[in-house]
Design goal:
single chain; 322 residues; alpha/beta; Glucose Oxidase, domain 1; two-stranded antiparallel sheet; globular; disordered N terminus
Length: 322
């Protein structure tokens, strides 16, 4: 009981501190400040001039062994939202399933980048000033036949590491965050204290905003124009902690971006500057429920993208293992 009271007090104190200031004005607020941040944090050359893995290099054999040790109960939870076949404000490209003659075979078609389908972004997906992660030129990498470097097939062997769920609605005592809510470093640090977990090198962080819970209650909306997500000022913190992969139930970016002249600053800083792959549109509702029930917000995560040669990303079924 005493622990519960302390947690409630901490949440209330944090809430008053956050809403009592004006964090929206912290840099970067414009393209010049964004460029300064990009140049300051970029990992280009950190793992060699020819590197194509980026921050996945932080997932070492020792890290994988540590992650596997977290599987205590053997329970598995999918982090993927079932494919959406209806066109909606957040789904301009519905998933297509076509039954073939005999109806015992079918064909799938999906344009998965966007705000509906659960997928992983490859490091060739986002560019800045006509360069990809590690300074490769657009003309060399992004071709009509696919990405010649940094494509999703570099992750063919799959990724197993430790994941940390950042349940920010739970932190604030809400069922979900309202679109446009920015999440800052102090939000994440407050969650670490309450959840008794600390982000470490080689981790995946999964940001729950409650997007799918809000969609179920209120219906779809234009997530690309208005969504809760990280403010770009959090990037130095993510680099300092050694985060390997970032995921969320939307696209990780707060939208509008709060950076004048830059539409997806988090995507650009993570993928192009740091070399961090992103998991978009993950469904984190079920894993959040199980984590709360077990009081464990760290678990093993298994990420297995389709090894499409030259692919800019991949839809897939990511698993949390408790």
């Amino acid at each position: 009981m005493r622990h519960l009271i302390l947690v409630v007090v901490a949440i209330l104190a944090f809430g008053f501190a956050t809403f009592g200031q004006a964090p929206a004005h912290r840099p970067p607020t414009n393209a010049a400040e964004f460029d300064e941040l990009f140049q300051r944090v970029k990992n280009w050359g950190r793992w060699g001039a020819d590197d194509q893995l980026g921050s996945v290099n932080l997932i070492t054999p020792a890290k994988r062994k540590q992650a596997l040790s977290l599987a205590k109960t053997g329970q598995t939870i999918s982090l993927v939202h079932n494919p959406i076949t209806d066109k909606a404000e957040d789904n301009n490209s519905p998933f297509e399933q076509t039954m073939l003659p005999g109806f015992n075979m079918d064909r799938y078609a999906v344009s998965y980048h966007g705000y509906a389908h659960s997928h992983m972004d490859a490091l060739c997906h986002i560019l800045y000033k006509d360069q990809t992660y590690n300074g490769y030129a657009r003309a060399i990498v992004n071709t009509e036949k696919g990405c010649t470097k940094l494509s999703i097939d570099n992750l063919k062997n799959g990724l197993i590491t430790r994941a940390v769920l950042l349940d920010i609605p739970r932190l604030k005592g809400l069922p979900y965050l309202e679109p446009g809510t920015a999440i800052y470093q102090e939000d994440v640090e407050a969650w670490e204290k309450i959840a008794a977990v600390k982000i470490e090198p080689g981790d995946v962080i999964l940001l729950r905003t409650g997007r799918w819970a809000r969609r179920e209650k209120l219906g779809p909306w234009n997530v690309g124009r208005n969504a809760a997500g990280f403010h770009s000022s959090i990037i130095p913190f993510i680099k300092a902690r050694g985060v390997a992969i970032v995921g969320s139930d939307a696209a990780s970016d707060v939208t509008p971006s709060m950076v004048e002249g830059v539409s997806l600053p988090i995507h650009t800083l993570l993928i192009t500057a740091l070399g961090v792959n992103i998991l978009d549109n993950q469904d984190l509702e079920a894993v959040a429920e199980l984590a709360a029930k077990l009081k464990r917000w760290e678990f093993t995560i298994a990420i297995n993208p389709m090894p499409v040669t030259g692919g800019t990303g991949s839809p897939m079924n990511t698993l949390a293992i408790f």
